[in-house]
Each structure stands twice: as C-alpha cells, then as structure tokens.
C-alpha cells in the first residue's frame, strides 16, 4: 500500500501560510546570488534580505490577528525564529516539510537542516520524507529535492549538501553536533583542514526544530546557535519557549474539527493489586478488543494495530518475560476462528522496539530477543522505517511492543489500542503515550477514513478510569492551558470498547452519511440551480480570499461570481469545513458536484464554488432537516459578528 496526502486540508494550509506570510517581500534568490553568498567557502548559501524590524512587525501583526499576542520574540541581533504549535497527530511533519519546500519554490531557499532530539524522531521524519517523496514531486514540479540523514562516518554527503545546486534537506539529531568530540566539530582533511561544521555554517541553513521543547538546555541552545541559521522554524505540540509564535492548533480545536481520534478508556485492571493479575487483565482485554475491531474493520480495508507499553524491557526481551508469556497465552486462547490470526502464532503477530545499541562502531536494534539477531533488525526496520508495510493487511505484525522509545517521534494512523502496563508512578507522561495513536485511520488505499465511528482510540489503562483521566487532563492543562485541553475520554467496559460512540463534546452533530443519496441530491440541486437563490444560497458563509494554496484570509461572500479561483477544490473544502458542524463529505462527491457546478457557472469560478457548496449543504439538509434552522441561525450570527469586526 501507499499513503496518500491531501494538499488541501485547511488546518495544515493555515499552519503553512502562517510561516509564509512574514516572508512575503523576500525576493527569489537565484543560483548566481546563492553562489555569491557562499563564495568565501565555496558553497551554495541561503540569503535573507528582509529587514529585521519589518519581519518583527509582520510577526506581531500575525500574532494580533490570531490572538497570540504577548509571546516571546527572538533576541536582538539574532536570526529570526518562528514557532508553530500543532496538536499531536495533525500532520506537523508534513506541514514543516511542505513549508520549507514552499520557501524553496517562492524564495530560493536551498539548504535546510532538520534537527531532532532522538533517533526515534529522526526515523519518523525520514519515514515521512520517503512517504511524501512522490506527493511533493508532483506538488513542486521541477524542484530538485534530496533528503538524507546525517552520518558522521559519511562526511562526503555533508560536503555535497553544502555545494550542490538542488534543495537539500539534512536530518540530524542534536547529539550529532552538541559536543566537542563530535566529528562535525573536528578538523578534517576532506574539508581543507576546516571542520564540517564550518562548511555547514557557511550555507546559512534554514533550521527546523522538531520537538524544540526537548532542546532547550543552555548547551543545546548554544549548539543550535552554532549552526548559524538563516532562520529557525520551531514545531511542537507543547512549546516551552514559543519564540515568534505565529500559529496555534490546540487539543480542543483539533477535537472540535475532527482532526484526531476520539479517546475512550477501558480499565480492566482497576482494583487489582497483584501486578501479574493486572497485566494479565490488560493484555486479555487489549487482544480481545483488537481481534473484534479487526473483524469489524477488515471489510473496509483497515488494518488494526495495538501498541503495548511494557513495565520493563526484561518483561518482553527475556524468553520467560511475564508480558511475553501472558501475551502468548491470551492470544492463543482468543485467536480461534478469527481471520488472519487463527493460523498464526503470538510471535508472528508481534514485534518490539526498545532502543538502539551501539558497539564497536556498529548500530543494532535492541529488540524483541537479544538485539543481535536478523529478526530483531527486521522488526526495527518494520516498526521504525516501513509504515506502509505495517499498515498492510498482508503484514502479520499487528501488536507493537515498546517500553519508552516509541513514546514520541513514532506514530501510526492505525493504532486503535494502547495498553499502558507501566506503573502509574512512572515519570513517562500519559499524553505522550496517547499521542502515538490519535492520527485518523487510513485504509488499504492509503486514504484517510473520515468516520467518527471508526476513528476511536481505546486506552487500556493500568488504573481506574477516574485516575487515568485525571492524570491525562492535568498533563494537558499544564502544557496547553486549562481552556484548551481536549474533551475528557469517555469510560467504556471492555465489551463495549470500540463500539460506535455517542457524539462527544465539541462533535455534536457528527453523523454518518448515506453517500449515494447525498451525491444524487447534490447533483439534482446543481441540475436545477435556480433553486439556490433562496435561503440555501446563504449556507456558504465564508470563503478564502483568492482560493489559492495556503490561503488563510476570509472575506464575505459577494465577490464577482465569474472571478477565477486558483484552487477551486480547496475553496470548496474550506467552505464545507467552516460550517458548524463541519461537513466532511468524500473526495469523489466533492469532485463530481464541483464538476457539474463548473459546467453551469464556469470552470474555476466563485459562482461554481458557491453553487457546489450550496448543493452539498442542501443535500445535507434533506438528510437531516431538523439541523437546518439551528445551523442557519449560527451562520447568520457569525456573519453579523464578521461585519462588526470589520
């Protein structure tokens, strides 16, 4: 299978545009100018011509517009820093990769360094780069891109990074350059007696910090300054120092917009004192739920994954480790008659990742057994580097085991169960664990499954529901503020876990669609478009000015109907998602209705977009007529507020 990426998602486009806006006015740097900028060291260098005061003024204006005033600014005389805060699971890595490529296309930025705090995060970034390579090649035609991981044993790649004419993206861990003993800081004959770091500095790289909250110590900040960045872009769900914050997507907003899975908590171990009994109860509940969910979702082409956090590494890596033994016992007892599992062993359906072991210059995965077998290295490759294969129904592994290495930097959209067996006194945060499974699921075509009945993450907790949720909400409040925490997970019994939920807070009105009926009704409305001159035409209450990629501004409906839009499908998506509640209709439906509308009112015109949106909204009204009056009142109130604001 192959993951597919939608370039029109409004929440991602807003985050991209928030960074691009302050750069407006920066001229495109030609190759000749880039060579001139790096002539002293014989490199191709980035260049920023924007006045620092003007850049600060633009960031301040963006903060006022987004309600983000009062944030920290970068120090006087230092390189600019811009921060983006996005809830885990909403596509942060995709957003910053596309942002730097937009900067390359628009302004001639050619040298990009992505700094990460750990190997797990690095592997996650590299996996995303591999998955998006074809998508970005189509989205940025003619832009030559090379991405790679820094390796101190292969310094020639860093020299190529500095001297090539193409867009270079180098991913490296902070540990690769934050000590005097690092190869990057030692003089090297291949660099004319200079250090590799000096060559890197000469390129004035655009630096992206992934999880900067883990790189905030004085030594880390000094090491990052040593990169001599042209500009630093900081991306996290939980900034400690949101320097130059230009965009924020909080947990509450992500849940309200349906961008992440809804969370429920099962507590089969509540009240159990004996450790083995508690772990046994959690494992049995997780496996039972996993098998039941997979049976239900197999027909929809959805692979179900479970993530198991063990109390100690020895509980799995040792032959008689208690989690390994209990997992095998319960799996064998429950697998009978279940398609895809009945004929497989517990060993075949599980794989583990704990850490990376370095000995004698070699690197091996310290994994499911000893860390020295070929099977262990295969498991590392599958879990850390081959997300698509892990998502395939043909791949037997569906239970992923870890201790702490996967608590950040790794995620998979089809994690539906997280079993937290470690003691509640652990310093590892619940929020980090939950973040591994909140992405919206994908099917075997690699496309998102926008179905609230499917997009549910079940946490099988090791304590009571009340204790688990209290800890999770407390961590949320500490990191994003009490007003921006996500809705509290609902409690479920093991037998009810994964069942179709009642509407959760912030998602009232989310319902499944009769797709065929919706499409037919919408096309019928387009066919008799004169019907739209009544109240239903007012359904499209806002639209992005210009409609182009990354458009974030909105203005009142009323532009000339014949005005041509750069990205009509993106405009349709924006308008539908700005409804209250949002209308998440399928890509095929949107495309067919827009195509019909363009035949009536002109290809790519605002008139066609208004007609397509109104037709879809009208079809929704026919399915749920009781919602219509309430929605119209909300839309009218919002329009009135918009007029007063202007």
Structure report:
The chain has 646 residues and is an alpha/beta fold. The chain has 3 domains: 11-19 and 29-249, Rossmann fold, CATH 3.40.50.300; 260-492, Rossmann fold; 515-645, no CATH class. Helix content is 39%, strand content 14%. The chain has 21 helices and 17 strands. It has helices at residues 10-23, 31-37, 52-66, 92-107, 119-139, 156-163, 196-202, 218-225, 251-256, 275-297, 314-317, 322-334, 374-385, 387-391, 430-435, 465-480, 515-527, 568-577, 587-601, 606-623, 628-645; strands at residues 81-86, 111-116, 145-149, 167-173, 206-210, 231-236, 245-249, 262-266, 305-309, 350-359, 362-367, 399-402, 415-420, 456-460, 490-492, 543-544, 554-555. An 8-stranded mixed beta sheet has the order 11-10-12-9-13-14-8-15, with helices on both faces. Strands 3-4-2-5-6-1-7 form a 7-stranded parallel beta sheet, sandwiched between helices. Strands 16-17 form a two-stranded antiparallel ribbon. A hairpin with a 2-residue loop joins strand 10 and strand 11 (362-367). Helix 1 (10-23) packs parallel to helix 4 (92-107). The longest helix has 23 residues, at 275-297. The radius of gyration is 26 Å and the shape is globular. The two termini are 48 Å apart.
Structure, briefly:
Helix content is 39%, strand content 14%.
Query: Class of the largest domain in CATH?
Result: Alpha Beta
Query: Into which percentage range does the β-strand content fall?
Result: 5-15%
Instruction: State Rg.
Output: 26 Å
Instruction: Please summarize the sheet with the most strands.
Output: 8 strands, mixed
Mean pLDDT: 83
Query: At CATH's second level, what is the architecture of the largest domain?
Result: 3-Layer(aba) Sandwich
- The H-level CATH homologous superfamily of the largest domain, spelled out, is P-loop containing nucleotide triphosphate hydrolases
Q: Which range best describes the helical content: under 10%, 10-25%, 25-40%, 40-55%, 55-70% or over 70%?
A: 25-40%
Provide the domain count. Answer: 3
Structural class computed from helices and strand pairing: alpha/beta
The total count of helices amounts to 21
Q: End-to-end distance, in Å? A: 48 Å
Biggest sheet: strands side by side, in what order? 11-10-12-9-13-14-8-15
Regions with little confidence, pLDDT below 50 for 5+ residues: 367-373, 501-510, 530-559, 638-646
